[in-house]
């Protein structure tokens, strides 16, 4: 494995996540959350880490979590590493993001209805990749629920499951004809 591939597969990005000032209802405001996010992961999968940190300071209302960077709402269906590479011309460490639990910009972002939305977006991206590599996506289309271990590993990467197994399964599925 090349150094670049290793960087992508095993890489993580340190995040410093602040609650947006308009959603802080206590003094002093809560400290930012410090998270090591996998490059292959997705920001909405961090909800379970962030919600406990900020829930006591939120105004009343329904949670509709979304993230922004320097005022730009971040597309939840793009992996964290890709967002970082696209938006940080001069990489900052930690990457300072703002989380919102209210005021979802539905005119700008597609709705994210939780982990299932992230899962199906990932599976659709996998279909596209398989089509580009093989000229068809039948390997992905024929996956049974039990074959969807790949998603469980992506989601589990947030919970420290085996990255090596994830690499082998994705590659095997994409190159099989």
TrEMBL record:
<dbReference type="Pfam" id="PF20637">
    <property type="entry name" value="ATG5_HBR"/>
</dbReference>
<keyword id="KW-0832">Ubl conjugation</keyword>
<feature type="domain" description="Autophagy protein ATG5 UblA">
    <location>
        <begin position="8"/>
        <end position="101"/>
    </location>
</feature>
<dbReference type="InterPro" id="IPR042527">
    <property type="entry name" value="Atg5_UblA_dom_sf"/>
</dbReference>
<comment type="similarity">
    <text>Belongs to the ATG5 family.</text>
</comment>
<dbReference type="Pfam" id="PF20638">
    <property type="entry name" value="ATG5_UblA"/>
</dbReference>
<protein>
    <submittedName>
        <fullName>Uncharacterized protein</fullName>
    </submittedName>
</protein>
<dbReference type="GO" id="GO:0005737">
    <property type="term" value="C:cytoplasm"/>
</dbReference>
<dbReference type="GO" id="GO:0006914">
    <property type="term" value="P:autophagy"/>
</dbReference>
<dbReference type="InterPro" id="IPR048939">
    <property type="entry name" value="ATG5_UblA"/>
</dbReference>
<dbReference type="InterPro" id="IPR048940">
    <property type="entry name" value="ATG5_HBR"/>
</dbReference>
<feature type="domain" description="Autophagy protein ATG5 alpha-helical bundle region">
    <location>
        <begin position="115"/>
        <end position="148"/>
    </location>
</feature>
<keyword id="KW-0072">Autophagy</keyword>
<dbReference type="InterPro" id="IPR007239">
    <property type="entry name" value="Atg5"/>
</dbReference>
<keyword id="KW-1017">Isopeptide bond</keyword>
<dbReference type="InterPro" id="IPR042526">
    <property type="entry name" value="Atg5_HR"/>
</dbReference>
